[in-house]
From TrEMBL:
<dbReference type="InterPro" id="IPR038727">
    <property type="entry name" value="NadR/Ttd14_AAA_dom"/>
</dbReference>
<feature type="domain" description="NadR/Ttd14 AAA">
    <location>
        <begin position="5"/>
        <end position="166"/>
    </location>
</feature>
<dbReference type="Pfam" id="PF13521">
    <property type="entry name" value="AAA_28"/>
</dbReference>
<protein>
    <submittedName>
        <fullName>ATPase</fullName>
    </submittedName>
</protein>
<dbReference type="InterPro" id="IPR027417">
    <property type="entry name" value="P-loop_NTPase"/>
</dbReference>
Length: 181
């Protein structure tokens, strides 16, 4: 059984907070490639920042997500990913038209259910690593919500509830699914 679970969706929708909740509960987690890249780039020359060179940023995110996915294979329990390869490949394909999404998705599969955080304007904020506005975040969300099903993933929309309840929702969903197999 594939235990690499993607949490994707709208920027500012609570993904990173949810990932932190899973870590606090003892689950393996993988932080968002994009945020890690931005931190590295802000400390260095800044050539692969999304607001400087989005294609370079997406390519680095793809490389990092592939390495993250490979490392997660060593885990025995659930591993929760804050975004991942599909998000990065979808961004690159949207920007450049390069047909990378299907090939990368086929080679590096995650759990068949992807949990999406919907646009949630009440909690959306920008910060030094997230400089785009809410409208851009919603457009990205719309692209991802359309892409995942075309790649054979089932989307489970996360309710707009407290982070502990969201974590319980996902764990209960995965437990029910495991029992049915």
């Amino acid at each position: 059984m594939n235990r690499s679970v993607l949490i994707s969706g709208c920027s500012g929708g609570g993904k990173s907070t949810l990932i932190a909740e899973f870590a606090a509960r003892g689950h393996a987690i993988v932080e968002e490639p994009g945020r890690r890249i931005v931190k590295q780039e802000l400390e260095g020359d800044g050539a692969a920042l999304p607001w400087v060179n989005m294609a370079a940023f997406a390519r680095r995110a793809i490389e990092m997500a592939i390495a993250d996915r490979a490392a997660a294979r060593e885990q025995t329990g659930w591993t929760f990913f804050d975004r991942g390869l599909i998000d990065a490949a979808a961004a690159l394909q949207h920007l450049t038209g390069e047909p990378v999404l299907e090939k990368l998705s086929a080679a590096h599969r995650y759990h068949p259910r992807v949990f999406l955080t919907p646009p949630w304007p009440e909690i959306y904020t920008t910060d030094p690593e997230r400089r785009h506005g809410f409208d851009e975040a919603v457009a990205e969300y719309d692209r991802l919500a359309a892409v995942y099903p075309t790649l054979g993933y089932d989307i489970v929309m996360l309710p707009k509830i407290a982070v502990t309840d969201r974590a319980d929702f996902i764990l209960d969903y995965l437990l029910r699914e495991t029992r049915q197999q």
